[in-house]
Amino acid sequence: MSDFTSNFWSVYVTVITLGGIIACLLLLWFSGKTKAMTLQDNTTGHVWDEDLREMNNPLPRWWVGLFIITCVFGFAYLYLYPGLGSYQGSLKWTQIGQLDQELAKGKEQVAPIYAAFAGKSVEELSKDHQAMAIGDRLFMNNCAQCHGSDARGGKGFPNLTDRQWNWGGTPAQIEETIAKGRTGVMPPMAAAVGTPEDVRNVANYVLSLSGAPHDSVRANLGRAKFVACAACHGIDGKGNPALGAPNLTTGIFTHGPGVESHIVSMITNGRTGVMPAWDSKFSPEQLKLLAAYVWGKGGGMPAEVAK
Questions:
Q1: What is the maximum span of the chain, computed from C-alpha positions, in angstroms?
Q2: What are the Cytochrome c domain coordinates in residue numbering (predicted)?
Q3: Which of 81, 206, 209, 274 is the most buried (most CB within 10 A)?
Q4: What structural domains and CATH numbers belong to the chain?
């Protein structure tokens, strides 16, 4: 670990960098002072293609001048900017600092655009064409990679246009989901349910909750065993937005089809899904516009619906 706490590598990089530039200048100086052995006609005696002779002329002055300017520029750059080991440069420039400045400048430029939407509710913004156009761009650039360009999601990624909202679909809940992110955990429950046959029975009972094709005999047997799942999904299977537990009566399954094999796999192996937090990237105005865009896609619930 001493390599990471000592200043050896910083000194090493500094010596190699400055030494390389100084060596180039010394090479130019020595080459100008060294006298080559030439013939009386100022040639070196080397001949190619019978009559092409090598002359011993000095380097063009413009080339020498440009070479020196390049070396001087290198010294000036290394003085102003980081490049010599741990030396930060006289300007204290960093990539992160420049990025922060550019982001701040960008936010300042677009601030008047977002100011026009200040004070408006998500419901009002969802009816504003300009607000929705901005929300669409924000969604396409940041959310479509997972939820799809049409917001209908895919396997493992929720459809934002349907009626299934694991964490709640009111404007406030959607905005909180975008800002803070979510981590949905379905633990392996096979041991709590019982035998593999019990797991199959519970899977069929889950299918019966939404009226999906199922084995009614197994569903009746699985009703009592479903109590192991009721702590999260509720005794009626309608879920719990506070926990992110899905409503099983809708027949919508994010991680696969509504068939026995898939549900058995979910009960047996569990599943974890992560929605990253975006509050560090977006301003409050942008978060509200994104929430309005998602809510306005058709699947959101009215604001007065309780959590």
A1: 113
A2: 130-210, 217-298
A3: 206
A4: 2-80 (no CATH), 103-181+276-295 (1.10.760.10), 185-275 (1.10.760.10)
Residue among 267, 176, 163, 249 nearest 212 (CA): 249
For every one of its 307 residues, what pLDDT tens digit does the chain have, with 9 covering 90 and above?
Answer: 455 567 888 999 999 999 999 999 999 998 888 776 777 777 877 888 888 888 877 788 999 999 999 999 999 999 999 999 899 999 999 999 999 999 889 888 988 988 889 889 998 999 999 999 999 999 999 999 999 999 999 999 999 998 889 999 999 999 999 999 999 999 999 999 999 999 999 999 999 999 999 999 999 999 999 999 999 999 999 999 999 999 999 999 999 899 999 999 999 999 999 999 999 989 899 999 999 999 988 766 776 654 4
Cα–Cα dist 296/285, whole Å: 16
Half-sphere exposure of 116 (CA within 13 A, CB side): 9
Task: Give pTM, 2 decimals.
Answer: 0.71
Sign of CA dihedral 213, 215, 220, 226: negative
Cα-Cα-Cα-Cα torsion 232, 235, 240, 242, nearest 10 degrees, comes to -60
Type of residue at 246: P
